[in-house]
Amino acid sequence: MIEKEWYNTKKLERYANDANLIFVVGERRIGKTLHFLQKAFELWYSEHKSTMWLRNKKIEFQDPSFVKDFLNAPKKFGWCDENVICFPDGVYTDKNKTEQIIKFQSISTFSNRRGNMTDDVYMMVLDEFMPEDRKFPKRCHIGLLSIIKTVMECREDAKCYCLSNFISSANPYFVGFRIYPKKEYDVTYYKDKGIAIEVCRGYRNAIQKDNPWNRVFEAGRYQDYGEAEEDHLFNLVCKIPKGGELNHIFLISEGITYGNTFANGLVYFHEVKPTTKYVYATTLQETTDKINLLPKFYKKMIEEWSNNNLLRFSNPNVMYAILSIIYDTV
């Protein structure tokens, strides 16, 4: 029996070698973060190029445990010199901060970054781009784009990797870039956008399936963050069941009218012709003397449906349109 490999970028190199922005989603403990941490030190020692390590919120870098543990694996496996040290602003060659190997940057403070501070960065890694609590920074996909443009726009061979455990396709990054992983592919490549998504399958896992703790995770309904077959990446887009009840409220977004149907305890959004006068615009630009702006209570309702995993969509374009309503300020 051939032992599975830890996570690596072989599939990405085969199917999306020229992608610039790459999203990697997979099970816990398959080596996603470690792979790119090793890659960061290899980049430094072989080419003297730096890496920018991103997190959604600045407070994550200020956690003493983050700074204390960040170099555990690199020191253990010999990826870096023993005198390398981690500070809240990044990783340096020594305690005197002679040279910076890895720069820390949060998405939430993207406007503070200046290009002349990062002329040696050739790789970005956004770790845990989908937080489990689903509390994203405001305009986070714009923040990521702003940092990329400021830091790496002129470096055609540079790449940005965004890593996460399995959470959901209902996140502002996928919605903002209008991307959605195809279930039948390990790597979905949007060549016209230069963006790829790898859904990690077939890699080695530090936590075996027969681990007794899995019983506890299953009892607490925590297992759906583990495997692709159980997560929420692919169950958002599906057919609308027959016999559902059409809601009396309708939405207009970019000239298309959407409604939702209640069925089997879920809320299915789809394109439809309005059957009542309750038609609302999702932006001020589409309001008229007869069509008002979407009420706050309905926007809040959509957000609650999303947080409770009740939303379903007839196709990805419908998903982008509806989720853009709740992610417009996220």
Question: Secondary-structure blueprint of this entry?
Answer:
Layout: H1 10-15, E1 21-26, H2 32-47, E2 50-55, H3 59-62, H4 64-69, H5 72-76, E3 85-87, E4 90-92, E5 100-106, E6 121-126, H6 140-152, E7 159-165, H7 172-177, E8 187-190, E9 195-199, H8 213-219, E10 245-246, E11 250-253, E12 256-263, E13 266-271, E14 279-281, E15 292-293, H9 296-307, E16 311-313, H10 316-326
Question: Which keywords apply here?
Answer:
330 residues; alpha/beta; nine-stranded mixed sheet; 26% helix; 23% strand; globular
Radius of gyration: 22 Å
Terminal Cα separation, in Å? 47 Å
CATH superfamily of the largest domain: P-loop containing nucleotide triphosphate hydrolases
- Outline type: globular
Please trace the helix and strand order, writing H or E for each element. Answer: HEHEHHHEEEEHEHEEHEEEEEEHEH
Give the second-level CATH assignment, the architecture of the largest domain: 3-Layer(aba) Sandwich
The strands making up the biggest β-sheet line up spatially as 3-4-5-2-6-7-1-9-8
Share of residues in helices: 25-40%
Indicate the CATH class of the largest domain: Alpha Beta
CATH topology type of the largest domain = Rossmann fold
**Extended strand count:** 16
Number of helices: 10
Summarize the structure.
The chain is built from 10 helices and 16 strands. It has 330 residues and is of the alpha/beta class.
Structural commentary:
The chain is an alpha/beta fold. It has 2 domains: 10-225, Rossmann fold; 245-326, no CATH class. 26% of the residues lie in helices and 23% in strands. The protein has 10 helices and 16 strands. The strands form 2 sheets. Strands 3-4-5-2-6-7-1-9-8 form a 9-stranded mixed sheet, with helices on both faces.
